[in-house]
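Problem 3 from the worked examples.
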Amino acid sequence: MHVSHVFNTCFLLGGAVYSQEFLPTYESIPEGAVELPDITVELPDIASCFYPQAEFNGKSDSLFFNDGVRRIDFVLVYEDEDMKEIDKNRMFQKRKVSASLMKMGMELEAARSVVDEKLLFVKVHMPWDMLCTYAEVLHIKMPIQPNDLSTTSSTFNFLSCITKHFYPSEDLIAKETEYFTAPFEKDRLEYFYVKDRDLFFTPSMRSRMAYYILSRAPYEVRGNIKKFGVTKLLDGGVYKAAYPLHDCRFNVRSKEDECPNERYLLYNEWAHPKSFYKMQPLDLIRKYYGEKIGIYFAWLGFYTAMLALAAIVGLACFIYGYMTQETSTWSKEVCDPLIGGNIVMCPQCDKECTYWRLNSTCESSKKLCIFDNYGTLVFAVFMAIWVTVFLEFWKRYQAELEYEWDTVEFLEQEEQPRPEYEAKCNHERINPVTRVKENVPYTACGRCIRVSLGIGTVLFWIVLILASVVAIIVYRLAVFFSFSTRLQSDLKELEPFKEYVTAQMATSVTASIISFVVIMVLNILYERVAIWITDFELPRTKTDYENSLTLKMFLFQFVNYYSSCFYIAFVKGKVVGYPGQPVYLLGKYRNEECDPGGCLIELTTQLTVIMGGKAIWNNIQEVLLPWMKNLIFRYCTRVGSEKVIPRWEQDYQLQPIGKLGLFYEYLEMVIQFGFVTLFVASFPLAPVLALVNNLFEIRVDAWKIITQFRRMVPEKAQDIGAWQPILQGVAILAVASNAMIIAFTSDMIPRLVYYWSFSVYPYGDHSSHTMQGYINNTLSVFDIQDFSNKISLSYFRYRDFRYPPGHHRQYEYSIYYWHVIAAKMAFIIVVEHIVYLTKFVLSYVIPDVPYTVREQIKREKYLSQVILHETNLKLVTKRLKPLGGDYDQPNQP
């Protein structure tokens, strides 16, 4: 037996034991403390001196202290060090934290682990007075009276017999009573709607207040340096975990009378695969996990519902293209052996590539017609309007949730500073609003340096991404030329070019896969850099922190994910010269040309690979990894079936939520939103794939947070934060992007120009237009005698609009080229202005806040004013009456 450490006199206060030795900052013993005799304890039981230990009472789902009365609001977990390995500094920090918590009024109780005796679980309880105090500090809004405004009945009530099957069962999840609320004030408790003190503050509110205190509990003070907060102690390994409790097991209803079984209800009515068709119980999600989690799932559900309409139109556009691919005039001409079979095309590289016949690209030409047709143009315009309607109606829906969830007046000044910010406030300044001295962590010059360093680092990484894109382009060229050296150059055989087309497709696919791998690797590296930069900038509040990190990560992800797509859409094949004077990259490689079927097919391939690969990778990362970790942990810590594991230890066996919480969930969806909107003109099936993915994503995210992760600390949130302006920016960019894809990447505009300007059928009948002859019209002629390779041909063709040999301006751009360019620019300008005007009108016509919500907000403010403020005014008036008479009566003579 190792002895022992002899403590100074210990004291008992509020059911918790602590020693004066680890309360050096106290000037005196707290009032109400009871002195205990000197005690000597073994070091493994060192915790017993600063919080009492209690034997587990055998109730596996108990949410209370051992006395069954005091509710557990938070749990801290640490490991008792052995005598030989003990870290005295860690022990001192734990003592200080415990003393600070108890000094602030918290009650603590410890319990040994059933599985591992070295683990100690410290249960934290907040008494009623403490809850009232911190509810006022955090401006938590509480009910003052039931909502007395009549609700308007829906027009579609007659369909309730059908729609009720798509909602969670009201027998299990009852509809919550609506209340008018006001910020809680401890001195005016009698004006609030308090039916039961134990149920007045919900478990999520209690956990939020407990975490607020824990994140500010000091554990070391050295001069001007203050160290506090359980977050840093978790990072340093002093504590192994800190979390609020789930209320029961997700798949078994608790038999405890006090347990609301909300986790069980959420699993069965929301996360279980059998409930995939049901609407989300958002009120219960918000009640259990807090507003921040609730607003994420509300946004994801709304986005998915709106995607259904886009998916239907996109699928119809795809089916139209698929049905017309065989009847397309230009596709027929390419495949016709008398037209495409007689057209000999220029080699696509200098020495190794062979001549080829146009009808070799028959299959790729048909595939191109599936995505490049007039239906795509209509769909692109539809999506530009859809994205505006989506954002405007989301604002309305978000306004309703803000009112229902009491976040309408959630202002930035109500949000408390981050503990990391407060710990480094060692500079003084005059507050520009209050004109009072306050402490800040840096001077104006220091802030400028921090921000400049952050901007410089982000720009460096963006340049690094662009360098990786160039490297992949070089890879594509090198592999393409490598394939080309193996091809035969027999003009009479068509098989060599079929091999060439296959090689080019293989190059495109492998380059897309490599691009995806590079994207994933750079994401992992940049994530750590972005977090380090944001930590260095030291934002004041958590919202500021998340907004700063969101902007950095999105800028990086935007370039990382979309740069290859923008290259294929707007750069590749645009500057290649012509056979006599090709353009070279890095002075060595001939600039890359588009696939014979066009760059649109390659863009579609790139989008499919990235969207599909990203969805698969995210599901592996989000679902399979936590499940495997929990399975391994349970296997390594398995105990006999006769042992009962308490609620707090069951939760400890789950995976912890990362520091960034929902950040990656939002980022995943916003990147997907970009693919759906920015490049939808090239891939009308993108909304369909996104819809299918999101239907799984909602349930997978729900299953994950309910079954595989510890309960998140509830947080307040008014909206989706910095993601809202990012979505609006993507929506604006999507209009220009799709207009430019149709103008410069597809063959839509050249076809329209030919149809309306150059095609007259037959014999000058201007009333009838046709697309016959389009293929021949879009291919220029090059004299073989002007080419370095000599064969028995007089000329070959290439894709461009140039004058033929023998013309006085041979190989210069023809008049048709300038007509096409003018049409492309006119198309972009007209479409952009029409769509932007439509977006402006829609945003003006659709109000951001519904009328009924505005009325309810006014009513709530009025009641708050009457009940909480005018009542006190009347009390003051009554007290003044004996001194000055009746102030309610007119003046007497």
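Problem 4, a separate protein:
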Amino acid sequence: MAKIKHNNFIDTVDTVFSSAKDNGLLHLYTEGEYLNGRTIKINGSEMLHFGTTGYLGLEQDKRLKDAAINAITNYGTQFPLSKTYLSHPLYAELENKIEQMYGIPPIITKNSTLGHIAIIPTLIRDEDAVIMDHQAHWSVQNACQVLKLRGIPVEMIRHNNLEMLEEKIRRLMGKSGKIWYMADGVYSMYGDYAPVQELLNLARKYPQLHLYFDDVHGMSWKGKNGTGFIFDAIGSLEENIVVVSTLSKTFGASGATFFCSDSKLREKIKTFGGPLTFSAQLEPASVAAAIASCNIHLSSEIEELQTELAKKTAHFGTLLSKSSLPLVSENDSPVFFLGMGTPATAYNFTKRLFKEGFYLNLGIYPAVPIKNTGIRITISAHNRIEDISELARAMDYHFHKSVEETCSSDEKIRLAFRMEIRTKLPAKKQHSDLMQIDEQTTIKNIDKQEWNRYLGAYNILDWDGMLYQEHTFANSQDPATKMDFFYYIIRDQKMQIVLMTYCTFGLWKDDMLSTESVSRHLEETRKTDPMHMTSKVLSTGSLFTEGLHSYIDDDHPLAEQSMQILLHKLEENYNSLGADMLVLRDFKPGFRWDEMIRNQGYFKIDMPESCVIEHNHLRVFENYGSILSSRSRQHFNKEILPFEKFYDVKIKDCLNEEELNRAYLLYREVKKRNLAINTFTYSREVFQNMNSSPNWEFIILTLKDVPEKDFIGIMFCYKNPSSVYVPELIGMDYAAGDGFNLYRQLLYQTIKRARELQIKRIDFGISATFEKKKLGASILPKVAYVQARDNYAMELMQTLQNETNTAR
């Protein structure tokens, strides 16, 4: 099985967060001896606070503070004992107060994250199934990971996509008990809601469907007694609904609550629910503050607080509606999200508002897609009407400044968020008269010498190689491997080329760079649904090539501007083609324009490493083992040279029909086994076109002294006239080659053939780096830059990766 180095999700997130931190927007500290809720001090500057999730401002209420202080005086800072054994004196009163609020006895947990960890594994039975909204809070998704160890299906749907939900319900109905759908009541980034009434209708249509709501952002500011958005929407708690709420955030204290109408289930969770048994209980101060908050919730004061907040929220909403600001979701929650599109625009806007004295939250990947970076503004009781008016004025002014300074536009932002474009202004010129971009859709319209001079010396990227790719893939009748080609050449006034590249548009499997275990899981579904988890991708290069797909004259004074022009053109095509992803591939780590590209809405990932053998190794071939390291030389002398005698080796420019059939069969054998780079299987036409092209040849290995004379190994090799040899694909008969080190021998014969042709470089591809390195290959790390319409596919891949890791 070919092995590759896979991208690490945590590294990607770290890169994005580090950039925001370097811009002074994350991991900040408040200053001062006290907080009042309305203002905060950061780096010596006093700011109006529009980032709190304490929407009613109860965390600063004197009654809650006094209760907490008295509890510490009376009971200490903590009661260090599991609640299973003994609760401190205030717990019973809190449980009683919450039951008065909801009309249902609660389970109280340390916080909502531990609550989900305690509740979900006990609530979900082995015969059940789970479906999650892909924007459900991380704590819910994380708690569901343990279910997979028990073999419980855990599926995911796109945000609020009820058609997708219903399709999954139908598929799970015949093989599951209860089918649990997990969602947030109010989503923390955009402030939008779960479609509760539609979900209730689905639950009536499908009695197996049960609903699990995390309503921590809907608490207190909504509903009778401040019981939250979900309770306000459902009226009464039926047996097929459970709700997790909070005693922190808007409630003003600490902890979380769980509600269900099944008393037996409630007792079961309370008796043994993981952290409920083995974690510390809430501190006396927190419980006392929660009791004080309950008293407010049980009085008419809660309605006054809700009404006052609603006025402020409505005021802000009205101001935004009269502006041109791109508000992503219009609703009456106290959470607002302004689309900025790229991180560069969001950073610029946030810093401007900081300087004006307004603190706002940055919404960035992975909480939102990288191209859906934005600003989350929350309205609270602490904010005054005049503060809100000033904020709206400042935002309207600075938004247009930020958009202009970062070469963005309102139209671009609205396209990124799939919002209605209100006024389509004439497109601004994205480049000066100093540069021009030439876009073509076929290599035939590009001068052969010019193309080969700048990009033709790499891989299968010479003019003839591009013509082969176009002939093979642009004309393909198979939608899985069909590609459209786009060529971009940017010149200065003197017609000197500053940048040259090409792109393809086609289908990718979403798990292409995931681990083999994830791909094996998805390939089972693809047996009946071949296009499952695939995306339309616009990418530099093609899936048939790797390596340097872009030429940039780094020393040219307009080099950076040429890169900006290219990014703008790619974004135009990305939108006009309706692509799901945009990928810039195969750059060296430390690429000069790294920060600029990331700030334009791309996140960086590690690509599989390339393997290359340069001319120094090919020049001294008579005793090839002598140029290898001592360890590799031992491997060469033991695992490769002694097996050469078992093979007849032929080099053929053209295969007959029988040989071509055999070659295609062996290719499919390798493809079936190798999911390290999971692409679609090529059609026979790809190999027929190789067979009729003068630049392709075939290295064929047949075992000597074997009655069955069918060849058992083949390497499909491209001869780039610029002295590059490209063993592009391989075919093997695993059974016949067992014990004869067939794969290693194919690699070695490829090296011998390149030396025979006096070719200076072998592009050995991106898998099995360990084997190729032992034969003298250099390993070249590469990165790519990616943006996507949403995070659904990436989050699902990550979920599947976690599942396969824990199953080992």
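Solution to problem 4. The mean pLDDT is 91. The chain has four domains: 9-57+324-416, 62-297, 435-607+785-807, 612-782.
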